[in-house]
Structures are given as structure tokens and as C-alpha cells.
Amino acid sequence: MSADLPDTPWLRRFHAADPGALRLFCFPHAGGNASYFHPLSALLAPGIEMLTVQYPGRQERFNEPCIESLTDLADAVAAELADRVGQPFALFGHSMGATLAFEVACRLRAQGAEPTALFVSGRRAPSIPAPGSVHLATDEELIADMEYLGGTNARMLRNPDLLDAILPAVRSDYVATETYRYRGAPRLDCPVTAFIGDSDPRVDIPMAEAWADHTTDGFRLHVYTGGHFFLVPHLEAVAETMAQSVSTVQTLSTQN
């Protein structure tokens, strides 16, 4: 990382960025890790400096205990980012990461650091409950739900050694998402852009459109073909939309 951005186990940076580039913090899905966003970083660099949050309990943080509360996780991440939002920044999260990005945005805003934009993917608005009990299911049922949603290599799900390594973090994330309850928060003053797949079993258009209730600024919804992990085949289009949105917001900010 650059000299003005000290190393931290919470953040991964994959590509260098232009001086003064907008800083984009990315939040992975349940069971995901920072490396999932490496391809997106390659598409956005060097015009956007992408920093991906690495949750405890995976990859190089494998030996750290997972955090099973989304609000506790948001508290921890917001504390880590507090000294890293002195320049324009935005947030992006997929699935669980979308809710987490929103909660972190609310905390940073309360501290006087308003994001330039919030991008959310594959997730209903926080104000729409998303109850579930998969976190209480057997390992076999948990694996079946992962297969149902896609996004995980099928061979990995049939490798006992790999499953032993990843299932604790996956179950922890399911606990965090399924026990999350929106507590209410002032609307953000930044635009919110949502992305979903048209056959996602977890979120439909009305659920995604409800994100508009969480901002005083503009809201846009982009619907792509695909399921919960529509991002993979549509990553270039999503990256282009994000880059254009950031550029527009920055231009308007300069004019004002």
C-alpha cells in the first residue's frame, strides 16, 4: 500500500492507482473473501483505487475468530476506515457485503465523512427484512444452499478438506445476515446505485428499488440476466457503470 495508507489486515489492495484517485472500498458476500474482487480491481485501475475489506476468519486471517454480528462487523470496519476517508471515497458491496457497506456508510457519515456514492449488488434494501434459518441447518443443508446460489466452485464443495476450512466462515456469515435487523438511520446524502440479476432467488426488483428510501440523492437500478452471482458474466458492464457514476458525481461536485 502507499505510504499514506498503512498496512492493515482489514484491507487488500491489488492494483496501483493514479494520485488522488477516488478510493472505493469493497465488501465481499457471505463466505467470500477479498480476492473475489481482484478482477474488478483490474478493470477499475488506475482511475479508481480499490481497497477490498478482508473479513476475519478467511485467507491470511484464517486463524482469527469470525464476527457473527453484522452490526459488530460494521463497527469494526468503520473504525478501520475512519483514518482512510480523508479523500473522496465510495463503497460497494455484494449480497451480505451490500448491507455491510450501507451500515459502514451510515457510521462514517455520522462521523462527518459522507461517501461520494454507494453501490449495492444482489441484496434487498436494509429496511426489508431477510429472515432465514440456514445458519441453523446441517453442514449438508448449508452446502446445498451454497450450490443453489452458485458462486462457489463445485469441486470445492465436494472436497472435504476445503469444506472443513471454509464452512466455519460461511456459517458465521449466514448467522450475520440472517440475524441482521435494520435499526433505522438517517438517509444518506449520496447517490445509491443497485445491481441485481433478473433470476436472483434472494432479491427481486421491488426489494432492490426500496434502496431508494435510504438516500436523499439519486437512485438507479440496473438489472442483468443471471442469478445471485450475475456479477461474474457482467463484471465489465458493472465496472463501466460504476466508473461513469463516480465520474459524474465528481464533476457535479467540482461544479458546485
UniProtKB/TrEMBL annotation:
GO BP field: lipid biosynthetic process
Domain of life of the source: Bacteria
SMART domains to which the protein is assigned, alphabetical: PKS_TE
Thioesterase TesA-like domain location: 25-250
SUPFAM superfamilies linked to this entry: alpha/beta-Hydrolases
Keyword field: Hydrolase
InterPro entries: AB_hydrolase_fold, TEII, TesA-like, Thioesterase
One of the Pfam families matching this protein, by short name: Thioesterase
GO molecular function, a single term: hydrolase activity
Assigned protein family: Belongs to the thioesterase family.
Protein name: Thioesterase
Record lineage: Bacteria, Bacillati, Actinomycetota, Actinomycetes, Kitasatosporales
